Amino acid sequence: MTLLDGKKTSEAIQDEIAAEVTALKADGSKIPHLAAILVGNDGGSVTYVNNKVLACERVGFVSSLFHYEDTITEEDLLNKIKELNEDEEVDGFIVQLPLPKHIDTEKVLEAVDPKKDVDGFHPINVGRMVAGLPAYLPATPAGILQLLQRYEIETFGKHCVVVGRSNIVGSPMSILMSKNASPGNCTVTLCHRYTQDLAYHTRQADIVIVAVGIPGLITEDMVKEGAVVIDVGTTRVPDASRKSGFRLRGDVDFDAVAPKCSYITPVPGGVGPLTIAMLLKNTLSASKKEVYA
Ligand code: NAD
Question: What is the pTM of this model?
Answer without folding.
Answer: 0.97
